Description:
Helices cover 66% and strands 0% of the residues. By secondary structure, the chain is mainly alpha-helical. The protein has a domain at 32-40 and 47-107. Helix 1 (19-41) packs across helix 2 (50-70) and helix 1 packs parallel to helix 3 (80-106). The longest helix is centred in the last third of the chain and has 27 residues, at 80-106. It is elongated. It starts with 18 loop residues before the first helix and ends with a helix.
Amino acid sequence: MFLRSDDFSGVGGGSxxxxxxxxxxxxxxxxxxxxxxxxLLAAAGAPSSWxxxxxxxxxxxxxxxxLGHVAGLYRGGDPVAFEMSLIGAxxxxxxxxxxxxxxxxxx
Length: 107
């Protein structure tokens, strides 16, 4: 019923972070960074906020990794997952900023 310290030990005996936890953390960090880079590369007068760009990067990162796994491009723990994560983040952030630019031109 109660948690013991050895309940959190990994296969190696001392680590409480598993490979899956580190991959998820990597996807989060990459997504936020790609969102920030997308915001920097957007036009100076872009009406988007930093937080929205970073959230789009985060969502794109998760979406790219998930779609690559579902499509069978790689298995769990494969480094290609990070590449798919980056591609997904770039695509979603780019689409978001393109939609904002199109909306701005219409107004």
